[in-house]
Structures are given as structure tokens and as C-alpha cells.
Amino acid sequence: MSRRVPSLQSLLILDAAVKHGNFTHAARALSLTHGAVSQQVRSLQERLGVRLFVRVGQGMQPTAACLALVGQVRQAVTLLDRAFATEPRRELRGRLAVSVLPHFAIGWLIARLPDFAGPDGRVAIDVFGSHLIDDLVDRRVDAAIRFGPGNWPGLIAKKLSGEIAFPVCAPAYLKNLRRIEEVASRSFLRSPFPPWEPWLQAANVHLGSEPDGAFFGDPSLLLAAVRGGQGIGLARQLIVADDLRQGRLVRIFETAVEEPYAYYLVWKPNSPRKALIRDFCAWLQSEIATTRQDL
């Protein structure tokens, strides 16, 4: 290997640091110490003469130079995998068409789907954003991820996770926040789920007037505005887990309200892909549990 090229181990450590957005989590995933990860990143920075990470909240945000480098590293690793493959690429194991709540797909699922497909990409997931459980009847959809009571007649529903909700805002917005009672009512950004009233009651917060900030029809739109520093949003824990870990958002108060419903994977009992759906369900449950452990 050329002396100009860093060791493969250091590049894989850099890739893990970008993926997890946190040196401690990257170290845990690689069975290394935090110091070892930090040292390798520092060594790469000195070698390349560029800044690879900046601290944002509790996380480490990769710079543009870092993302460009990691993109090339991943391409190189893929080529190495192909070069040392011991068996021909196997045929596609299966394909699932999954209808997903848009905020769940954007906030949590999409970033993790490659892990379910596996290193050889033998499973393909087609994602359709929708709020309608009728997708299973009216469209060629194999399964749906929904938030509800879990009792949809004629369908199998497996619980994935309950949820809690709490207020979040951008780090820059937090600098100007003293007491929530002093925040203008228009700064409370709103969405139909979850609404503000249960949390305000649980936190014993009494505002001068009802929250009347901008309204967003889907939580993913609301969170985009919150990340942009436009106000405070009430968010579900799972959906903002990556934002909190990587420092894009901060949780304002410890008070949280338990949501009355939960996330479920739903499918038809006679589905020809029920074996693959069950595998997908087990994977979702495991990934959600891992996400909550990292919080």
C-alpha cells in the first residue's frame, strides 16, 4: 500500500464515526475505546490537513471534506468486497412494498434500510409514503407501518414500539430560550400529531394564550422548520433520535407524555410474502430497541 494511503482500519473507523455521529457510539460498534477512535480521526486530519468533524451539541458533525472522503472510502470498500468474494452474488431473496408514514420513513427508517438488505443486497424494500391503512387493499402493498391502536379488522398487526413526546428545538434557538412561559405563542410550531395540549398539561405549563405558531400537516415538515430555528416543536422520541444524537436538535425539558397509540407493522394474513414480512418485523423491533438504548 502506498505511504500516501492511510491504513484501512483508520478509514473504517472514520466511516463508523460518520455513521454514528458520535465517537463513543462508533467506538462501541467497533469494540474500541473512545480514545482510539479520536486518535485515528485526529491522525487523519493531520495527514490530510483538513478538518473532518466539528462538535455540534453532544455529537460530532462531519464536514464537507469528511463526507467526500467517506463516500470514496465506501466505494473502495465495495470494490474490495467484490474482489475477494468467495461465491457468486446470490439472487434477490425477495422484494417488499411497504407503505410507511412519511415522518417515520424520513426520520428513522430510510437511513437503516441498507442494514436489512444485508451486505449482498438480497432484499429490496420499495417505500411508499402514506397515512392510509387502506393501502393494503387498494394498492399492491405488502405491509404498512402505522401509528394506531393495533386492532385493524382482518389484518395482522405486530407492535413495533410505543412512543413518548417532548419539546425540541435547534441548538441556536436554545440560546435565546429562558423560560418556556415567556416564549411567544407563535413560536410553538404545531402538527396534528402530537398536539401540544397533553404535554403542556403534564408539564404544568400555563401560557398566556394557546399555541398558534405555523401549522404543518406532517411531523417531518414540522421538524424541518424546527431544525431551521423557526421555533419549538413537540416531537416523538424515535423520530428525533438521530437528530438528538448528532446535535441537530436538543431536548428542552425532561417532561414527556406517553402517546396513547403505538407503531405497528400491519399485513394481510394471506400475503404470499408473509415469511419475509415477519423477518422485516423482527428486524424493525430489534433496530428500534437498539435506537432507544443509544438515547
Can you put this structure into words, describing what you see?
β1 and β2 form a beta hairpin. The model is unreliable at 86-91 (pLDDT under 50). By secondary structure, the protein is of the alpha+beta class. α1 (8-20) packs across α2 (23-30), α1 packs across α3 (34-48) and α1 (8-20) crosses α4 (64-83). Helices cover 40% and strands 20% of the residues. The strands form two sheets. Strands 3, 4, 5, 6, 7, 8 and 9 form a seven-stranded mixed sheet that branches. Strands 1-2 form a two-stranded antiparallel sheet. It contains twelve helices and nine strands. It folds into three domains: 8-83, Arc Repressor Mutant, subunit A; 94-162 and 261-293, 3-Layer(aba) Sandwich (D-Maltodextrin-Binding Protein, domain 2); 164-258, D-Maltodextrin-Binding Protein, domain 2 (3-Layer(aba) Sandwich). The longest helix has 20 residues, at 64-83. The chain has helices at residues 8-20, 23-30, 34-48, 64-83, 102-109, 113-117, 135-138, 171-174, 197-202, 219-227, 241-245, 274-293, and strands at 53-56, 59-62, 94-100, 123-129, 143-148, 156-169, 233-236, 250-251, 257-267.
